[in-house]
Amino acid sequence: MKATNDEFNPLTEEELQAQRDSEELDRRIRRMVVRVQSGEADEEIAEDRRLEEEERKEAEEEERKERRKRSGLKWQIFSGSILTSRGLADNYRYFAAIAVMCFISIVVMFAALYADMSYSRMENDVQLLRERSIRLQEQLHRRTTHQAIRDSLVARGIDLKDPRKKTSVVED
Questions:
Q1: Which one of 70, 71, 119, 156 has the minimum C-beta count within 10 Å?
Q2: What pTM, to 2 d.p., does this model score?
Q3: Which of 72, 13, 134 is nearest to 126 (CA)?
């Protein structure tokens, strides 16, 4: 025959597991209390305190190194935390003024460059116009002189004829 378990247990499986864990914890606490009262655990407690103190010192040293690293100017510039520092926040208006002046300086520099290019272009244009003016004056002078000579010859009754063969001009 099979043994049947007709006994009703109102606790769920999770509650039973929690109860077993609680009993195990109580047993450990009782063992530790007995050890502490008998003096066996003093060495372990001292060792635990020493390890905790070493861990705390290491953590403080790491934190100090991290703070020193973060307080360095290069790190602050790279991370952007320099913008939130107290000393820099007081001077934002000066930095804004410097930025505006730099921008104005750049604008003035490009305006001067553009003006210089325009001036050079106009200088070349003026030089070309002067050369053209000189050529036109020479042509006008030639026509005027030739016309004046012709008019004076016509007034005297002399007929003007161009030479048949080319003559060379002798310069002084």
A1: 156
A2: 0.35
A3: 134
What pLDDT digit, counting tens, does each position of 110-147 carry? 999 999 999 999 999 999 999 999 888 887 776 666 67
Record the tokens describing residue 143, joined without a space. Answer: 């026509």
The model's pLDDT over 74-118, given as tens digits with 9 standing for 90+, comes to: 777 777 777 777 777 778 888 899 999 999 999 999 999 999 999
Tokens of 29: 């606490």
User: What does each C-alpha distance from 20 to 8, 10, 24, 28, 141 come to in angstroms?
Assistant: 19, 16, 6, 12, 128
Identify the sign of the CA torsion 112, 115, 121, 124.
negative
Listed by start position, the domains of the chain span 13-90
**Which DSSP letter does residue 169 get?**
P
